[in-house]
Design a protein that fits this description.
217 residues, alpha/beta, Rossmann fold, DNA polymerase, domain 1, 2 domains, 6-stranded parallel sheet, B-phosphoglucomutase_hydrolase, metal-binding
Length: 217
């Protein structure tokens, strides 16, 4: 096994939880189209790109629209979402994240963000964490969403390390698959019943230590 040189992090559900804002914006859009979506349905959209999420929602509501209208709706949804996330502050950082990042720095490990969100930069700025990453890979830098490995392959490349030297932290099934396809280790944050392919699973980063993770790889 190669020594671990870098930790790569998804954003939503790992560092912050913006799922509620996505849900509120998507639900508003669905309501305007004449149907509703539940929080359970929204869970299935985690880690899925904006256009793919829109397709799933339209199929759920049995609504068919021309491509131009879909682009218009995706843009509108994003505007509503941005209105919500622009109010975020450092208090929105999930419990345990600042302490864990302090340990990562102390251990001399490199860090990268690996998110399909095109708004990742704005969110990091709002919560004051931009400076915590040596590389930021978001939806503006990739052509393929998760479970394609592109986001984590690019992260390793920008850090100057091999994918096999990286540990990826993810809360979504698609993200875990993306990490594994990149050839990295995958640490799941959430339920072990859901994130079955992860090397190890924790409820969150709270009370997790870097040494604990490295010892279990």
């Amino acid at each position: 096994m190669q020594p671990v040189k870098a930790f790569l992090f998804d954003l939503d559900g790992v560092i912050v939880d913006t799922a509620i804002y996505h849900y509120q914006a998507w639900r508003r859009m669905a309501n305007e189209l004449g149907f509703d979506i539940s929080e359970e349905f929204n869970e299935g959209l985690k880690g899925v790109s904006r256009m793919d999420s829109l397709e799933l929602i339209l199929a759920h509501g049995n609504v068919q629209l021309p491509e131009e209208k879909k682009q218009e709706l995706a843009t509108l949804k994003n505007q509503w979402y941005l209105e919500l996330v622009s109010r975020m502050t450092p208090t929105d950082i999930l419990p345990g994240v600042p302490a864990f990042f302090a340990q990562v720095r102390e251990a001399g490990l490199k860090t990268a963000l690996g998110s399909v969100s095109k708004n990742a930069g704005l969110i990091l700025e709002r919560i004051g964490m931009t400076g915590q990453f040596d590389a930021i890979i978001d939806g503006n830098k990739i052509a393929k969403g998760k479970p394609d490995p592109e986001v984590f392959l690019k992260g390793a490349e920008e850090l100057g390390v091999q994918p096999a030297e990286c540990v990826v932290f993810e809360d979504a099934v698609a993200g875990i698959e993306s990490a594994l396809r990149a050839g990295s280790f995958a640490v799941g944050l959430g339920s072990p019943d859901v994130l079955t392919k992860a090397s190890m699973v924790f409820p969150s980063l709270e009370n997790v230590t870097v040494s604990q993770i490295l010892a279990r790889l």
